Amino acid sequence: MVVNLKSKKRLVSRMMGVGVHRVWLDSDHLDEVADAITRDNIRGLITANKIKIKSFKGTSRGRAKLKKIQRKKRGTTAGSKQGAKGARIGKKRVYVKKIRSLRYLLKVFKDRKEINNQQFWELYKKVGGNLVRNKAHLHSLVKEIKTKPKS
């Protein structure tokens, strides 16, 4: 018995809030689906797995993500950089980053009791005044302070 089940599919799609093409009817139980008139009948068939909703098939973003990563990498090598030294990262941002890392290192030295409070503030002012070039320079200054005889 061949029955047009277009209206049944439409009813199921409206009930479930999906498109008509996502509604799947079990080919072994088409006569039961054709006999189902009310929404309750259809709900019963859905719970009995004679009517199913196919899962949503979206567009894969995998290739797009890979492409984005490749684009982001482009232009970061030494030969591709254009502009002045402070054009890509501003001078102030470089300075702030350096000062924050040096101040953190100073705090570590103080917490480890490698320098006392007075020495900490002496070095803190030097760091703030941009007299300390980098972490290695700060390490050497701390070592100098340690080796200096106490007078």
Structural summary, described in words:
By secondary structure, the protein is mainly alpha-helical. Among the domains are: 47 residues, Orthogonal Bundle (50s Ribosomal Protein L19e, Chain O, domain 1); 57 residues, Non-ribosomal Peptide Synthetase Peptidyl Carrier Protein, Chain A (Orthogonal Bundle). The protein contains seven helices and two strands. Strands 1-2 form a two-stranded antiparallel ribbon. Helix 5 runs antiparallel to helix 6.
List keywords for this structure.
mainly alpha; 50s Ribosomal Protein L19e, Chain O, domain 1; Non-ribosomal Peptide Synthetase Peptidyl Carrier Protein, Chain A; two-stranded antiparallel sheet; 2 strands
SSE topology sketch:
Layout: H1 6-16, E1 23-25, H2 30-35, H3 39-47, E2 51-53, H4 62-73, H5 91-111, H6 117-128, H7 135-147
Antiparallel strand pairs: 1-2
Relative helix content: 55-70%
Sheet with the most strands, sense and barrel status: 2 strands, antiparallel
Radius of gyration: 36 Å
Task: Enumerate the strands of the largest sheet in spatial order, edge to edge or round the barrel.
Answer: 1-2
Mean pLDDT across all amino acids: 92
N-C termini distance: 109 Å
CATH topology of the domain at 91-147: Non-ribosomal Peptide Synthetase Peptidyl Carrier Protein, Chain A
Q: Low-confidence segments, ≥5 residues, pLDDT <50?
A: none
**CATH class wording of the domain at 91-147:** Mainly Alpha
β-sheet strand percentage = under 5%
CATH architecture annotation of the domain at 91-147? Orthogonal Bundle
Helix and strand succession?
A: HEHHEHHHH
| Cα shape | elongated
| DSSP, total strands | 2
Number of helices: 7
